[in-house]
Specification:
The protein is α+β, with helices and mostly antiparallel strands. It is built from 23 helices and 24 strands. Strands 16, 17, 18, 19, 20, 21 and 22 form a seven-stranded mixed beta sheet that branches. It has a six-stranded mixed barrel with strand order 4-5-10-7-9-8. A four-stranded antiparallel beta sheet has the order 15-23-14-24. A hairpin with an 8-residue loop joins β4 and β5. α2 packs across α10. The longest helix is centred in the middle third of the chain and has 38 residues. It is globular.
Amino acid sequence: MLKLHLRTAIKTLLHQKVFSFVNVFGLTLGLSACMVVANVVIDDLSYDRNWSKSKDLYRILSIQDMGSGMTERMSASYAGLGPELRKNFPEVQAVSAIVQESMRLRFNTGDPAGVALTELRADTTVWQLLDLPLKAGSPRVYTEGVNNIVISESVAKRFFAGRNPLGRTVQEVSAYGEKPESYVITGVMKDLPYNTHLRAEVLVLDKPRVESLGNRSAGTFLSQYILLRPGTDAGAFTQKVNRWYADFMKDARVYRYAFQPIRDVYLRSDFNDSQNVKGSMRNIYIFSAVAALLLLIACINYINLSTARVVSRLKETGTRKILGARRKDIVLQSLAESVLVFALSLGLSIFIYRLALHPLEDYLGYSLELTFLSRLSLLGIACGTVFLVSLFTGLYPAWLLSGVPVAGALKGRLFKSSQSWLRKGLVVVQFSISIVVLVGMIVVKGQVNYMTKADPGFDRKGLLSIGFVSWDGKGDVFKQALLGVPGVEGCSITTFLPSSGPGFMSRDQDDPLHPGNKVKVWYMSGDIDLEKVLGLRLKSGRLFDPALSTDAWVYDFSEKMKEQPSLITASTAEMLNIQDLHTIPGDVYSHPVGIVEDFHSQSMRDAMGPTFILAERSPQYGGMLIRVQSGAEGRVMASIHRLWRQMYPGKLLETHWVDEMLTDQYAQESRFQQLLTFFSGLSMILAALGIFGLIVHAAGQRIKEIGVRRVLGASVASIVRLLASDFARLVCIAFLVAAPLSWWVMQKWLEGFAYRIHIQWWMPVLAGTVALVISLITISFQAIKSALAPPVESLRAE
């Protein structure tokens, strides 16, 4: 019987070629896109679950209360905290400082710049926390007297093909040391999986840091991970630690600590932090919704197209019932057709998905550890899900077709008004989803354009940056040499580089406008030319004066620093209630002599905080900002490299155009916009296919009416209006549903940005207009075809 149903289903699909093609095409688009999006979600959810002790591994977070329910958290804690927890709490099995950074290693003398690699810097306790399978060497035994480094298997194959790397020396091209730092390779480990936030190609090992935990708010901060004994209640342990710490500290302003499960680090670290590998649960929710909606639209298409095709099979169904077919037989036959269509679509979708994998990884910028093709269990779940969806999707057309009375089927009468409204409701759902996605694309594009093109408060054009280095007492000489290069209009050694952070230091002080609260004050410093090179605009007071030796300070955080002149932003003066420029506000280091207009020291996701700009005399550490004349970029860049080789032959030189740095801050939002553009186009195509099915059904139901109207002299245009009016009304209803929903969804998304656009009335209107135009084009194609058909064909009675 099953073989008979499948054979009949194949014949039916081959007989109805247009419907079969549209069905398979629509489902293939929906399923392949759903698989791609679902793969990204599954891979993101798998991060840091590969560690054997992941259930008991936590990262220590430091939390500071700022008042009014506001808290600030960071993934670093006092270096002495970890050893104290290990000593005082039996629940703690091991603690290790682990930091993921980038480094440049020189594997041969002919490569002065070295090779950029990702490093995991950890102390030797890391072996107790993480599974780091070894291929060669004994790196667990620390080699004294040298810097220990463990390289990955892929690095070993890349740079030591056919040679034993153990015991060999490699050099780090540093931006700080005068000479390259040497490391001895003590081991080779298997490549770490990509689905971890501790992704790295080399492991640098240090001895555990010996630093006592003081009972004052001072000390070195490190990123630390803690392994709790199996069965430990993390919540109770957290309360216990915080009670102990509050008793231990004598400083009134103490941190609280939280223990973040390592499985949550990748997706649930939305706080402002320097974590390099980071995802977002918000994106998981969005992508999961997109995958579900794409599958829903594809299924709605199948239902509408299958329902429309029922019209042409009424007499066939009636004849089968007269010949003894039971309702169960007709249902099974219809479900067999549904399963067959879904199976064909799934096969094509897997093929398209396979082709899309590498472009997807290139687009994301990293490899997917879990795919439907690398894990047969995932592919099996996907196939099982599609099979169940095919059964549920095929139930309605099967029930509809099998329930037709014989007399009604032979007379060509089928649909009740309630069934007609169900199909129309599905079309409304389809276009509502499409309009919401399209509005989302428009809003995201507007926000990205706003952030990338908005005035940051300083002159971003023609500004070149050199990354942070140690100037080794030669910074002023290098600066003067650059000022002599034609095309260089100015330069400044600075601890502030656009997009690198709000400052080199921060202090928490009492909020004068909200007693009882704290406000974080940031300090940024550079030499005395910083504000001129940036192009900051003076609002009141004065700028730094090179003729005044007191304007530039020497690195010293004693009480004398309170006498140090500084510049502040306009919002700083307002937030700290500074009305007299020459008065030291509260316990802030330095006193302001000038107010400049606000500028963005970090991305527009974050609000501007109180900022003090200090002028430092002959900075020994920091980057450099260089103002370059338009048209002289190439000549200046060549001169910078030549001077750098002369003065710093062993140091790494990293140069970036500030305009590009500011744009790169929003790479994640730009990718999100591109994805929404793709999904909005795809959803519109699928919605158009759905309305195509409905117009085909309507034209089939009203074929004799159309013939009579044509005989009585009706024009083609009037018949097109007749058929199109109902469907245009459905799109308008979809717009009324989608407009407030899309406004609410995108308003929630925009709340993640301190500086954002406002959703304008024309955004949903534009999306609704696009949906209406696409639907009218789809409707007109079939309506014109029906109107132009010879009336004799539609009026002929068989």
